């Protein structure tokens, strides 16, 4: 129904307008008791074989919603009905910010991809906390944190620490995002020394709590092998808990969409099927070179159970979807979990 009826209607709208339309519709309808009951029965798949324990947290299944869809924690209870094992909110910043000028989100249907230059648009971490306090579901929540655009890089650590402290009681794990291509100079924080200093500061602040939360680092797919080696060294030295691989890519060489069309869109990160191969390569490299020293959440181009299995076999412990849900519909989560369940049954010792 989604691909034959709903998707064609949504794809007639501007992508960001379609996003807000979908948000409003979900908010109005998913909270109705009969609708929520039907959704839960239709989309959820519970089986002990799907359960995973990663960095001390028990996930009911390994399929999560990637950051960027529900930046401000507005749809936690509603999205939990779709069968996700966990939801990542953000990227959140200390102060509210509008993000980059519109238009800033674009579809590439020929590639089943998206280009975005949203620029960490969000209502600020404190507004998100007000919503998290009221949530009803117990689903695992990750808090993806970043810096405000106006904050210079040499003061960025203050923004990350502010978000960590405000969010700490309300999320189950944290993601340090230094890999978005849409905030000026943000990716400079991925360089070895700045990144090491940032993660040391975040880890120290987190460890001061009675119950520290897992800390993960989200990295770009555009890093060289040498830079990935640095990531492995930094993760092990700072003793953070894992890596999310990967964010969107600035590489457009694999796109099938007409070059003039792509160039007319302008700057932005590419997500979708085109990212699948590279994100898997990064996962495999990190897992192999580190001898599986830390957990990896795999994200990028997951449109089927086979895509998810590929990420897991490359070394990921969990996976996340976003663009795949836009093109395939919400039933994608259950289809992935069904495929994973069959795979786990066949490979179970």
TrEMBL record:
Catalytic activity reported: (S)-dihydroorotate + a quinone = orotate + a quinol
Membrane disposition: Peripheral membrane protein
Protein's pathway: Pyrimidine metabolism; UMP biosynthesis via de novo pathway; orotate from (S)-dihydroorotate (quinone route): step 1/1
Chief location of this protein within or outside the cell: membrane
InterPro entries, per the entry: Aldolase_TIM, DHO_dehydrogenase, Dihydroorotate_DH_1_2, Dihydroorotate_DH_2, Dihydroorotate_DH_cat, Dihydroorotate_DH_CS
GO MF annotation list: dihydroorotate dehydrogenase (quinone) activity
Co-factor requirement: FMN
Residues that hold FMN according to the record: 67-71, 91, 144, 177, 218, 246, 272, 301, 322-323
Subcellular location: Cell membrane; Membrane
Cofactor note text: Binds 1 FMN per subunit.
Start and end residues of each Dihydroorotate dehydrogenase catalytic domain: 50-342
Source domain of life: Bacteria
GO process terms (BP): 'de novo' pyrimidine nucleobase biosynthetic process; 'de novo' UMP biosynthetic process
Chain sites annotated for binding substrate: 71, 116-120, 177, 182, 247-248
Keyword ATP-binding: no
Leading EC class: oxidoreductase
CC terms in the record's Gene Ontology section: cytoplasm; plasma membrane
Subunit and partners: Monomer.
Family of this protein: Belongs to the dihydroorotate dehydrogenase family. Type 2 subfamily.
Official protein name in the record: Dihydroorotate dehydrogenase (quinone)
Species assigned in the record: Mongoliitalea lutea
């Amino acid at each position: 129904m989604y691909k034959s009826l709903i998707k064609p209607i949504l794809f007639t709208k501007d992508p960001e307008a379609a996003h807000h339309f979908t948000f409003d519709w979900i908010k109005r309808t998913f909270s109705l008791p009969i609708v929520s009951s039907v959704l839960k029965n239709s989309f959820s798949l519970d089986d002990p074989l799907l359960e995973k324990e990663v960095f001390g947290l028990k996930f009911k299944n390994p399929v999560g919603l990637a950051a960027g869809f529900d930046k401000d924690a507005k749809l936690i209870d509603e999205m939990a009905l779709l069968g996700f094992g966990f939801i990542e909110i953000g990227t959140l910043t200390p102060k509210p910010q509008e993000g980059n000028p519109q238009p800033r989100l674009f579809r590439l249907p020929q590639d089943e991809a998206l280009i975005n230059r949203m620029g960490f648009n969000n209502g600020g971490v404190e507004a998100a906390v007000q919503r998290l306090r009221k949530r009803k579901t117990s689903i695992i929540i990750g808090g993806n944190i970043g810096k405000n655009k106006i904050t210079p890089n040499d003061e960025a650590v203050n923004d990350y620490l502010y978000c960590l402290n405000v969010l700490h009681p309300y999320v189950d794990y944290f993601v340090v995002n230094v890999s978005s291509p849409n905030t000026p100079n943000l990716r400079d924080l991925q360089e070895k020394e700045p990144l090491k200093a940032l993660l040391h500061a975040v880890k120290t602040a987190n460890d001061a709590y009675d119950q520290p939360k897992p800390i993960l680092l989200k990295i770009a797919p555009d890093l060289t092998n040498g830079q990935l080696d640095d990531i492995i060294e930094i993760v092990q030295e700072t003793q953070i808990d894992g890596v999310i691989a990967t964010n969107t890519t600035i590489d457009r060489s694999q796109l099938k969409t007409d070059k003039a069309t792509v160039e007319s869109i302008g700057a932005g990160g590419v997500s979708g099927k085109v990212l699948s191969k590279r994100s898997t390569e990064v996962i495999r490299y990190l897992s192999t070179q580190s001898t599986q020293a830390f957990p990896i959440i795999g994200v990028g181009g997951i449109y089927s159970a086979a895509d998810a299995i590929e990420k897991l076999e490359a070394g990921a412990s969990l996976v996340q979807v976003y663009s795949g849900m836009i093109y395939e519909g919400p039933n994608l989560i259950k289809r992935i979990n069904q495929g994973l369940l069959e795979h786990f049954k066949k490979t179970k010792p």
